[in-house]
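hey all, quick one before standup. I had two proteins in the batch that finished overnight and I want to keep them in one place so we stop losing track of which output belongs to which input. First protein below, input sequence then structure tokens straight from the run.
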Amino acid sequence: MTVQPNVLFIIADDHRYDAIGAAGDRVVKTPILDAIARTGTMMNSTHIIGGVDGAVCVPCRACIHTGTHIFQATESQTIDDHDRTCVIRAGANTMPSWFRSHGYYTHAVGKWHNDRTSFSDGFCSGNALFFGGMSDHREVPVFDYGSNGFSPPNEPRVEKQFSTELFTDAAINFLEQYSEEDPFFLYLAYTSPHDPRTAPEPYASMYNPKDIPLPPSFMEEHPFDNGELDVRDEHLADYPRRQEEIKSHIADYYAMITHMDYHIGRVLQSLADSGKLENTIVVYTADHGLAVGRHGLLGKQNVYDHSIRVPWLIQGPGIPAGRRIDQLAYQFDIFPTLCEMAGVSAPDGIAGQSVADLIRGETKQGRETVYALYKDIQRMVKDERWKMILYRRSELTGQGSDRMQLFDLKNDPWEIRNLASSTELNPQIERLQGELRTWMNRTGDPYADCFL
């Protein structure tokens, strides 16, 4: 009889896909994540699909949990319908509920950021649970969860321990105490490296801003109104962007990542000490990326690669070591991929596709294109070389611009040179417009007619 593997699912908040040593960043220190990449596989081109809320993390997490695109994942994707855009659609099978129904003991630690009903349906228990979007990392409002429901039942208690350490200790406590025969599904959700980026020492002083190189796509201002230049994230630094200030932001961002990396190592060591590491699938990902000065932006309310691409590292039984896969994938492909690797059939009717064959090297075929959206103002489609972004002025806010960008990612991975006016590339534009139309119709994008 084959023993089903355990699952350790680790998700960060705001961790850009390339802010990892193994992904090519020569400044940030991530020895633990680098080790996962060496002993497992790195999905190097994993994308979010986006959403219609400035808090992009909410729809992204719903997509991860449900294994499908945003217009199937939540009760509402109407702009500014904040009470319902965080609610996972009734009847949707979530990753924890699905694994729970297939014999797994499901436990959660850290940030959920969706509704309580979907949480209760999915998890057997949980500790240090944070249901908000952000908080001071040293004043974290949390709940516990068990057979008697949430504790405290209504208002959370406030923990003074730094969030990354708080969540790590809770995860280790679960691993040390879990003694059941059923395999476990442990969901560990950090709020790091989300601002306020206030890593404790010695991490806070680890990166000297003067030594931080600016990205090639650094700009003092975004070259046009993208429709969302006044959102909270974009006020974390002054306009126009100053090089010294952006370098300080990057230094603080890296400090948070390195601090989190160390504590992920503590969790993996606890898993090894329990004797369960060899039979555990470990996943590391993030809800979305972050600009941190690229293209004159600070936040994630855009569809450049720095904001829509996320890390996806996976190691465990049957997963090749040292593989780097560049084929296109979606964040919501993680759910069905884990199902296949755990010997569990995936739910019917989801948009996610298992890439287990791709990871095992049994096929080289990934997705041909992916698309992403933000509110009613930005739409993106790309293949492995070409990327098109369409912008429009919002009828709701009056902000935004009717623009097109076309990037040759092979020769311009930083998305700096807009080739949309090059007439010889009209065939590429027409092809990508067709792909975008197909994606918007397939997902039921309510703004499809506004863009094409």
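OK second protein, same deal, sequence then tokens:
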Amino acid sequence: MRNGIHFISGLPRSGSTLLAGILRQNPRFHAGMTSPVGSMYMGLEQSMSRRNETAVFIDPQQRREVLSGLFTNYYGDIQSSKVVFDTNRLWCAKLPALTQLFPDAKTICCVRDVNWIMDSIERLVRRNAFEPSGMFGFESGGTVFSRISAAASSDGLVGYALDALKDGFFGEQAPSMILVEYEALVSNPGRALKMIYDFVGEPWLAHDFDNVEYAADEFDLALGAPGLHTIRRKVEFIGRQTVLPPQLFHRFDDDMFWRNPEANRHQVTIIRPG
């Protein structure tokens, strides 16, 4: 990657689309919502595994070149003029490979109080009350309890991302990560962005936090979740009451592991409000 590549990962409904919308204001940066590179990467890994009997003819260097070439070829001319930020929840679980493929790459992980993540998901479902969501298999007979349980499962929208985040946070490659709490990003975006710029080693460019634009209407509509990737123009914190029943809202009180200083054994940089 001629001008460099970094990754955006972390938890859903935690500001990754907003962050991409801000970063893309910089003409030197390419950023967006979840790209297809992650799923293609997984497909290549599987096709080169021992599940494929011809994989015995692929040596370790060839594996590296094939996987590295995926990024180079997908971004094509983009990476000749811009720094790429590729977004996918799985990147936190792939740090051992990513740090070998791209030693200078950093992974920006957007995180948030898990209770409020679940609230945000349920709020989106209720906003689109007449259209079953692909986030839950387009099932129309669920309840708030079944939806939250599905999202929290190990292969669910939130559960998988949370496990992947832990995978990276507690692994040896954790120093290549930076965690950005949602409240820090929306309450003081200038401070958060300057810390991100410093972390990835890029010269600062002033951003317009009153006019941030990003939408993926066609993708969201196909998923049955209109508005999933639409962000408000002005970056600001907006307080609200939860729509979740109390027993659901407090179910995830103990899941914000990154807030425990003793758990941060690799001294991962965390951008908190304040």
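Flagging for whoever picks this up: The domain at 5-271 is CATH 3.40.50 (Rossmann fold). The mean pLDDT is 91.
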